[in-house]
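User: Please run a holo structure prediction.
Assistant: Happy to. Please share the sequence and the ligand.
User: Here you go; the ligand is iron/sulfur cluster.
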Amino acid sequence: MTGIDRSCGRGAALKKFPFFLPFAGCRGQCVYCNQRAITGALSVPSPDDVRRALKKLTAPREICYFGGSFCRFPKDTVKEYLDAVTEAAPAGSTIRFSTYPGDLSDDAMRALIKSYPVSRIELGIPSLDPAVLASCRREADPDKILGDIAVMMKDSLPVGVQMMIGLPGQSRESSIRDMEKLAALKKNDIWDMRLYPCLVITGTELERMWRIGCYKPLSVFEAALWGGEFIDRAVELGFVPIRIGLQETESLASEAVAGPHHPALGELILADAEARKLVRCSHDGPWHVPRRFISRFTGHGRFGVKRIAEYAAIPESEACRRIIFES
Ligand code: SF4
């Protein structure tokens, strides 16, 4: 029995309750990023806004601060947002946030974060290739990024990573090498992973680059295959994919102007990853697949079946015959 499962058998997690703080704390704007367009959130809720919303909850949740660089706020502001959770959310709630990798290199910031029930710190690490990072207008010292993560690990802070594919100047090989470097650092730790295939969003520098022909985005098919290879290897190395592709929203649908924008891109990537794994483990099958993954194989024009046929070098009808769905 096999299957790439986004929960990967972990215990029941608390339901997430997200707040979007668009560009909060960010020092610049990465070329591909337009948080307001992606999330539809136009303003940053204050700690009091957060408190008011959390007081309405009746059960513990994982309270999330996304959409900016949380620990680039001044320390007092970070504390106010954390206090809002511990004061107003139901007991047992935890906190998850996304931030820039180096934001926890400061001892006082780490000490502050450690004093709250933080369940996961998602670090934006779209790439570790200095040239790719520089083209994305991100801080471009991979050794510092890895060193900063090591410091967090020493303090037992729970790490997660947000990575990307299809960035300007990025190759499939370099993206997988980056992820393998992170795997070498994490060793046996369990790290959540989000994978975002790069989209061209209105109002970004990437849109300008695309319009003048300096950037060629991936097609949906290219993203499915690159993402499939990436996720297959990531799961093998012990990462837990919790999200693949941006959450589809009305705002995203109207603001993504080019690139692999598809409401089921995550499923296509998981189907490709699953097909790679199945054929790697048994080249000729039969392939036993949990029934709950049936749509990955039979949905979207039998995408998963086609990928198995391709990797096993057999006709699609034969691939179909050798896949056995099991309860
Ligand atoms: S990708 Fe992250 S760090 Fe870059 S602009 Fe967007 S929110 Fe800020």
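The pocket of iron/sulfur cluster is lined by residues 23, 26, 29-30, 33, 35, 68-69, 100, 124 (CB under 6 Å).
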